[in-house]
């Protein structure tokens, strides 16, 4: 039962983390936040491979590559 409480507390903390970030006032925060998400996904795949010894399959690599492409597109210079 204790793990249920930890799960609920973690879910609440994660939700608050996402909501609090929306109160940022600078105009490019959305791009930065999305880029952070893309990098987080890539690092999660690498963590699973290196630390947890779970070899990524083709879909993991394709998904991580798509995230990286998205991050690069979002961070491209604009006028």
From TrEMBL:
<protein>
    <submittedName>
        <fullName>Small multidrug resistance family-3 protein</fullName>
    </submittedName>
</protein>
<keyword id="KW-1003">Cell membrane</keyword>
<dbReference type="InterPro" id="IPR037185">
    <property type="entry name" value="EmrE-like"/>
</dbReference>
<keyword id="KW-0472">Membrane</keyword>
<feature type="transmembrane region" description="Helical">
    <location>
        <begin position="33"/>
        <end position="49"/>
    </location>
</feature>
<keyword id="KW-0812">Transmembrane</keyword>
<feature type="transmembrane region" description="Helical">
    <location>
        <begin position="61"/>
        <end position="77"/>
    </location>
</feature>
<keyword id="KW-1133">Transmembrane helix</keyword>
<dbReference type="InterPro" id="IPR003844">
    <property type="entry name" value="UPF0060"/>
</dbReference>
<feature type="transmembrane region" description="Helical">
    <location>
        <begin position="6"/>
        <end position="26"/>
    </location>
</feature>
<dbReference type="Pfam" id="PF02694">
    <property type="entry name" value="UPF0060"/>
</dbReference>
